[in-house]
């Protein structure tokens, strides 16, 4: 029974069915998809003898083949028109045809290369613009990504959770009949594009700002520096500068010694390159080691730079050539130095001006430091005062005060007149070429005679105004504070005439007045600013010491933030104790300060080691071993006092004994000082300083002598006594008689007796005697016994004969002379 209707649920009848037409191919894809495509059949070309060989043109160039195909049928058309038999091409024609084809192919190739270069340049330009735009977008997206980071992370977690749930449901659901299970289904082949949405990466965690900026690809975004370098490279390429940059040639200053790192910095090269070059020269050095000037010059020349040889002296700072322009100068206070003889009232006069008692704080009532104070009178401008010592030992400090001052006040006591230190102060003032004001002090005392002082000043070419001269003189009394206002008026008048100016708007430049080592604050220097303004935090160099200003303290003990011209201030923050009188200069950085300080220290070391070169002549001229050396170690509270003490003790030396100061310094007596004293056998003199506990312990163990002083008179007196004791008592000989040997005869078994004729004085038994022969000393002896005829006598007077036995000598001959003398021991005084 047959039915034409198709029944439900039944399969199609089996049979042969044409599915694909000829010349087509059916393609099958996943999920039951298919496609039918037409297959292009490429016909094989058969070459004939008249055709051109394909090797004549490049295989990769299709346009050349098309031209050949167009050119090949041309003879056939002519043959169709003319029934003449086909004519074959000659070899020359074939060669010409091949050359034409090659020429056309070369033109096409060059055209395509030009188009390719143009496309590449456009692509590069577009790429740079895209990168720049992408960087701008990244910067903008950074703010938005920060806000959306949490939301994106939450969405990613929800999506991962939904995907996990979907996978669980798919695994739990049974596979439909007629289809394979998902587990046995083969995975589709990977293609260039993903088929669906990729599953989230659970191991990556939360979405961060950096991950959001990188995008899905996970690549790192280019930095702004990379983009800048790319733009510069593209710009150079467009300008035809595709190669490396042109090397910059520098002028390199090469001192006598320089580190490799500093030389590399001046050359603008890598330090590693310099080390490598030195290694090739056979020198194993590091970047921190020094090389000499010749080696540095070789390196500079090798790297193509210009050499400028400089000496170490060029490292130092020379402020004399640095002159400020006239329009930058402003008025400044005058610097006034008070000078004169000791105990003539210099410090008392300054007390009266300051309204403070300074002299009471000085040991023995004499000034032993340079004091610096700034005073502002009730009617007048500020004035800076320097108080210098008057004792003869402080000559250098007094001269230093005269060299940094604008006005000098010479203090002379009306009852005492001019003294040696007064004359010395006058000479310092004249050498410094500064104006002078004479202050005749102590006019309230009995015996005061101001006119006598004025007349004594005439001997030194100083003519005061009272005697028709040009030097101001003021009669004052520091004790009663008489005429102090007149003295201040004279100072202001002199300052107006000088028109003192300085530039405050620059780096500070000054002079170290005094320096010391404070136990709690470290090295401290009193500095007088000449020009500029010194501020807290400035880097400076003072002599061989460098540092950074940690604090500034004025003369009243108050902290200040800055100090202007002619302002005395204590500076804290030094790396060492400078010498009084050293130059104080602010520099640009710490490296420059260290460089200058190291050079100055090397100069001092060289000067100290070569200060007294010894030669054979000087060794013999100096009496050699006959001169006794008296070693000393001196420690003082400030640098200027240490210098004064050293100079004072050196003046005590004479040809019999000389002082040798092994070490002098500033600050408390330390363990190293005691150790040095123990090894050299020298006493330690402490001037206004004391030893620490450890130094006392070592001194007690090694039996080192300490001497403490605060007045320089007492110190020099003790040194004189100690040196005299080292020499011992002074021996004085008094000649009492002379005699001539007339005969020599035996006295006992071994001794000889001399028959003498007394020529002068007397001969006494037991006295010392010298036996001379032809004015040459034969022996030194003693009169053991004296006989007059057969009697023993104690003395024989001139004009008589006697016999004498000389102790410890038998070398006696007729004609010898005998000199008899007494020995007196006297205490030695230096």
From TrEMBL:
UniProt keyword annotation of GTP-binding present: yes
A single MF term (Gene Ontology): GTP binding
Gene3D superfamilies per record: P-loop containing nucleotide triphosphate hydrolases (3.40.50.300), Translation factors (2.40.30.10), Translation initiation factor IF- 2, domain 3 (3.40.50.10050)
Family the entry assigns: Belongs to the TRAFAC class translation factor GTPase superfamily. Classic translation factor GTPase family. IF-2 subfamily.
Residues bound to GTP: 340-347, 387-391, 441-444
Domain Tr-type G as annotated: residue spans: 331-501
Location(s) in or outside the cell: Cytoplasm
Segments of this protein annotated with the region Disordered: 1-20, 25-252
Amino acid composition bias (Basic and acidic residues), ranges on this chain: 48-170
PANTHER family referenced in this protein's UniProt entry, alphabetically: TR-TYPE G DOMAIN-CONTAINING PROTEIN, TRANSLATION INITIATION FACTOR IF-2-RELATED
UniProt organism field: Sphingomicrobium sediminis
GO CC term, one of those recorded: cytosol
Phylogenetic lineage: Bacteria, Pseudomonadati, Pseudomonadota, Alphaproteobacteria, Sphingomonadales
Keyword Calcium on entry: no
UniProt name for this protein: Translation initiation factor IF-2
Biased composition (Polar residues): 27-37
């Amino acid at each position: 029974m047959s039915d034409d209707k198709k029944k439900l649920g039944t399969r199609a009848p089996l049979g042969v069915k044409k599915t694909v037409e000829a010349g087509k191919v059916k393609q099958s894809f996943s999920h039951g998809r298919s496609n039918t495509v037409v297959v292009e059949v490429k016909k094989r070309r058969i070459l004939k003898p008249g055709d051109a060989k394909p090797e004549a043109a490049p295989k990769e160039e299709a346009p050349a083949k098309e031209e050949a195909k167009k050119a090949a049928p041309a003879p056939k058309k002519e043959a169709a028109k003319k029934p003449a038999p086909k004519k074959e091409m000659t070899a020359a024609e074939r060669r010409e045809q091949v050359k034409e084809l090659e020429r056309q192919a070369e033109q096409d190739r060059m055209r395509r290369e030009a188009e390719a270069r143009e496309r590449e340049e456009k692509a590069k330009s577009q790429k740079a613009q895209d990168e720049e735009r992408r960087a701008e977008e990244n910067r903008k997206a950074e703010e938005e990504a920060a806000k959306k980071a949490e939301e994106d992370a939450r969405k990613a977690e929800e999506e991962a959770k939904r995907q996990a749930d979907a996978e669980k449901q798919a695994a739990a659901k049974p596979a439909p009949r007629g289809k394979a299970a998902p587990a046995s289904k083969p995975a589709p082949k990977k293609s260039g594009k993903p088929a669906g949405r990729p599953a989230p990466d659970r191991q990556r965690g939360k979405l961060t700002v950096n991950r959001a900026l990188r995008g899905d690809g996970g690549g790192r975004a280019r930095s702004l520096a990379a983009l800048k370098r790319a733009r510069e490279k593209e710009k150079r390429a467009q300008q035809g500068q595709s190669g490396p940059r042109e090397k910059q040639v520098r002028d390199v200053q090469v001192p006598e010694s320089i580190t490799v790192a500093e030389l590399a910095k001046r050359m603008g090269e890598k330090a590693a390159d310099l080390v490598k070059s030195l290694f090739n020269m056979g020198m194993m050095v590091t970047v921190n080691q020094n090389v000499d000037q010749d080696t540095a010059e070789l390196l500079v020349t090798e790297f193509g730079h210009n050499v400028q040889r400089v000496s170490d002296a060029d490292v130092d700072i020379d402020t004399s050539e640095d002159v400020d322009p006239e329009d930058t100068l402003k008025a400044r206070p005058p610097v006034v130095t008070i000078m004169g003889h000791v105990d003539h009232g210099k410090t008392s006069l300054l007390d009266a001006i300051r309204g403070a008692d300074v002299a009471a704080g000085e040991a023995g009532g004499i000034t032993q430091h340079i004091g610096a104070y700034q005073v502002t009178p009730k009617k007048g401008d500020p004035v800076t005062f320097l108080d210098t010592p008057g004792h003869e030992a402080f000559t250098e400090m007094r001269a230093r005060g005269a060299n940094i001052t604008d006005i000098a006040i010479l203090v002379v006591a009306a009852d005492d007149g001019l003294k040696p230190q007064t004359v010395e102060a006058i000479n310092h003032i004249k050498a410094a070429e500064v104006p002078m004001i004479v202050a005749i002090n102590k006019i309230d005392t009995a015996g005061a005679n101001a006119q006598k002082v004025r007349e004594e000043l005439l001997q030194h070419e100083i003519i005061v105004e009272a005697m028709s001269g040009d030097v101001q003189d003021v009669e004052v009394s520091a004790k009663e504070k008489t005429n102090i206002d007149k003295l201040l008026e004279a100072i202001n008048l002199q300052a107006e005439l000088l028109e003192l100016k300085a530039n405050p708007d620059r780096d500070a430049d000054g002079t170290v007045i005094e320096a010391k080592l404070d136990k709690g604050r470290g090295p401290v220097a009193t500095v007088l600013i000449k020009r500029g303004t010194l501020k807290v935090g400035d880097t400076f160099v003072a002599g061989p010491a460098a540092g950074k200003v940690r604090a500034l303290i004025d003369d009243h003990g108050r902290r200040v933030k800055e100090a202007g011209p002619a302002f005395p201030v204590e500076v804290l923050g030094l790396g060492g104790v400078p010498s009084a009188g050293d130059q104080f200069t602010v520099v640009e950085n710490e490296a420059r300060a260290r460089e200058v300080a190291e050079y100055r220290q090397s100069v001092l070391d060289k000067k100290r080691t070569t200060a007294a070169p010894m030669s054979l002549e000087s060794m013999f001229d100096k009496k050699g071993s006959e001169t006794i050396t008296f070693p000393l170690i001196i420690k003082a509270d400030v640098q200027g006092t240490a210098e004064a003490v050293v100079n004072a003790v050196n003046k005590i030396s004479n040809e019999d004994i000389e002082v040798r100061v092994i070490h002098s310094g500033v600050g408390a007596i330390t363990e190293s000082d005691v150790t040095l004293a123990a090894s050299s056998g020298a006493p330690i003199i402490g001037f206004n300083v004391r030893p620490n506990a450890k130094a006392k312990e070592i001194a007690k163990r090694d039996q080192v002598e300490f001497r403490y002083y605060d007045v320089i008179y007492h110190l020099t007196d003790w040194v004189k006594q100690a040196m005299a004791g080292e020499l011992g008592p002074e021996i004085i000989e008094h000649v009492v008689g002379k005699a001539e040997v007339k005969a020599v005869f035996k006295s006992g078994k071994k001794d000889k007796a001399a028959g003498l004729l007394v020529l002068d004085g007397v001969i006494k038994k037991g006295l010392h005697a010298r036996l001379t022969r032809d004015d040459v000393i034969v022996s030194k002896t003693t009169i053991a016994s004296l006989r007059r005829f057969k009697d023993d006598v104690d003395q024989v007077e001139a004009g008589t004969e006697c016999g004498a036995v000389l102790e410890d000598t038998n070398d006696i001959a007729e004609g010898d002379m005998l000199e008899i003398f007494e020995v007196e021991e006297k205490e030695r005084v230096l």
